[in-house]
Amino acid sequence: MSKHKKIDQSLNRVEALQLEAARLAEQATNQLTDYARTFDISKQTKQAQSAVQDGREQLQHAAAQASDQVGVAMATALEEAAGRLRTYKGDGPTAQVARNAAGALEQGSEYLQPWGTRSMFRRMIRTIRNHPLPVMLFAIGAFGVAYFRNRSKPVVI
């Protein structure tokens, strides 16, 4: 339930940021009107460009922040749902459906956060679960290569 609250809070934050962006746009418009009355055209142009640039930067920052918050909340919710499905014990078609659904949810989470350490760790665990023998053989081979390469070198203290 707390993940749903996080998503709701993130959505509320997005709405608040949208309202703030509209307020900033209105404020920039008012500033431009004031500048037009007070200063000559060259000063107006420079100040208008500055006000627009500032508003654009603030809007981009607010939108990026809101997008990140929503992405994190949704990825967390997907990970939690996948984890619950992975704990389902049993055999047969129901267990297969649960595993497939968990895999799909994990892929959705990875899509939202492709470079997160959790998703990279989860991919590694999934590879180990799905292909234990090749992973074990690879690990033994890598260890053997490292051992035999370093075995012939004398240890210098």
How would you sum up this structure, described in words?
The chain has 157 residues and is mainly alpha-helical. Helix content is 87%, strand content 0%. The chain contains five helices and no strands. It is elongated and about 80 Å long.
Radius of gyration: 27 Å
- Proportion of strand residues: under 5%
- Give me the strand/helix succession: HHHHH
Q: Pick out the low-confidence regions.
A: none
pLDDT averaged over residues: 76
Helix count from the secondary structure assignment:
5
Count of DSSP E strands? 0
Q: Report how far apart the termini are.
A: 58 Å
Give me the secondary-structure category.
mainly alpha
Major β-sheet profile: none
Helix content: over 70%
Sum up the overall morphology in one term.
elongated
How do you describe this structure in short?
This protein has 157 residues and is mainly alpha-helical. The chain contains five helices and no strands. It has helices at residues 2-38, 41-86, 93-112, 117-130, 132-151.
What's the SSE blueprint?
Blueprint: H1 2-38, H2 41-86, H3 93-112, H4 117-130, H5 132-151
Characteristics:
157 residues; mainly alpha; 5 helices; 87% helix
